[in-house]
């Protein structure tokens, strides 16, 4: 039985360590990986799993609706040895670890950290915008699940990311996932400011035809605690649900 399935039987206070048990900020040192944040447990960042989420700072894109702009520039808050010590204290309480960002594949030390987390008995998931397809392809044998952001149809990608040709690596990353055959989910953050429902449906239809089975629409929020964007119409949500084996709106 997964830890996620046990969540209703445990209090949040039991799963979330007291503050003095969390890694202490600082002492990362020169050349340390850019570990900029840690969520002790999450039931939403890896569907069906209860996971700790480690945020890696650094991202070359400048998306118009970026949810974590404070993670665009590389910086370190925690040291990796301190995070691993903390993860050892979570053994038996968590299903896995998700590396998120920022763009976690921007971190050269990510493969070593993934290996160490796996050696400690954790499954490992990854959130990525698909910016570095070759790095993703090399890491896939070590990953149990990937959440890939597909931000827009081809015509709107550059305007949204602020970078020319940004759809190319994203599509190459999708192809790598399809060829690998492991578990993954495509996600699109939806804001009516950036694309209409017709555009979203067109993108989703293309993804389904390519072989994507799991898809989620994430309603854009104005900041981590801000209100969600206008919800999709019932007709659009229904059509999206028909396209995929598993569809979620968050």
From TrEMBL:
GO terms for molecular function: 4 iron, 4 sulfur cluster binding; catalytic activity; metal ion binding. It comes from the Bacteria. The keyword S-adenosyl-L-methionine applies. Keywords: 4Fe-4S, Iron, Iron-sulfur, Metal-binding, S-adenosyl-L-methionine. Pfam families: Radical_SAM. Residues 53-183 form the Radical SAM core domain. Its cofactor is [4Fe-4S] cluster. Residues 1-29 are annotated as: Disordered. This is Anaerobic ribonucleoside-triphosphate reductase activating protein. It comes from Andreprevotia lacus DSM 23236.
């Amino acid at each position: 039985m997964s830890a996620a399935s046990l969540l209703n039987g445990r209090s949040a206070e039991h799963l979330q360590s007291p503050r003095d048990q969390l890694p202490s900020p600082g002492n990362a040192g020169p050349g340390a990986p850019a570990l900029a944040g840690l969520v002790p447990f999450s039931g939403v960042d890896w569907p069906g799993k209860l996971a700790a989420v480690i945020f890696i700072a650094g991202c070359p894109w400048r998306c118009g609706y970026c949810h974590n702009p404070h993670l665009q520039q590389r910086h370190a808050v925690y040291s990796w040895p301190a995070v691993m010590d903390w993860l050892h204290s979570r053994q038996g309480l968590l299903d896995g670890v998700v590396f998120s960002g920022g763009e976690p594949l921007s971190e050269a030390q990510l493969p070593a950290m993934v290996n160490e987390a796996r050696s400690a008995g954790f499954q490992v998931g990854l959130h990525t915008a698909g910016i570095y397809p070759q790095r993703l392809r090399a890491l896939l044998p070590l990953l149990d699940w990937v959440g890939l952001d597909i931000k827009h149809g081809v015509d709107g990608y550059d305007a949204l990311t602020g970078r020319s040709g940004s759809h190319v690596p994203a599509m190459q990353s999708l192809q790598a996932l399809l060829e690998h055959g492991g578990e993954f989910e495509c996600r699109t953050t939806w804001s009516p400011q950036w694309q209409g429902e017709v555009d979203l449906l067109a993108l989703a239809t293309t993804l389904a035809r390519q072989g994507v089975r799991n898809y989620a629409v994430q309603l854009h929020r104005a900041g981590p605690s801000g209100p969600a964007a206008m919800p999709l119409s019932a007709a659009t949500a229904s059509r999206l649900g028909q396209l995929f084996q598993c569809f979620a709106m968050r």
